[in-house]
């Protein structure tokens, strides 16, 4: 792992050591669109953190993989999986150095992680008919949440551009339109299918 990867790993290890012990929830883009999931297949929670998406995918009966650079995140995820009695394959993995191989997953979920250079590898890693569920923070926000560095925030409609090779299934991005106290704000939500 290079110096940048080690710094990221240490930062997230510190954060996860200080995070409470509640079992993490799946991201809304997955929970709200769970009816789209296949009955069986191989799923990946990409940069999974504590693995709310992975636990949910495994509970839906999918053969679930979960990758994160933080050993502390993976340790905690394994403990949650044991507590819930679900089986999943977790891995300490730097996705920049080891992106997924082509056509290897039926479902990929990415939440609150943005590394634009990986978008082609993520699309390529879907099997034909595979689904990508993606949500992360936007520059246009109504609250001070998510990263402060604008490089880690989505531009307007950016997920549509990054994953334009996929068939659009679902998209939501509300920006600052209308009543900011209502709706799904601060993030963009995308589901796409590889045809
Ligand atoms: C904001 S957290 C999101 C975690 C989880 N997806 C969620 O929605 O709760 C970002 C995650 O990306 C992971 N991460 C950052 N760079 C990574 C890399 N190069 N390879 C793998 N994971 C990485 C961090 O360890 C952290 O768990």
From TrEMBL:
Which EC number(s) does UniProt give? 2.1.1.265
What residues does the Methyltransferase domain cover? 44-130
Q: Which InterPro entries match?
A: Methyltransf_25, SAM-dependent_MTases_sf
Family matches, as Gene3D superfamilies: Vaccinia Virus protein VP39
| A biological process from GO | methylation
One annotated GO molecular function is:
methyltransferase activity
Q: Which residues form a coiled coil?
A: none
Q: Which UniProt keywords apply?
A: Methyltransferase, S-adenosyl-L-methionine, Transferase
One Pfam assignment: Methyltransf_25
Q: PANTHER family attached here?
A: METHYLTRANSFERASE (PTHR43464), UBIQUINONE BIOSYNTHESIS O-METHYLTRANSFERASE, MITOCHONDRIAL (PTHR43464:SF19)
Q: What is this protein called?
A: Tellurite methyltransferase
Origin organism of this chain?
Answer: Methylocaldum szegediense
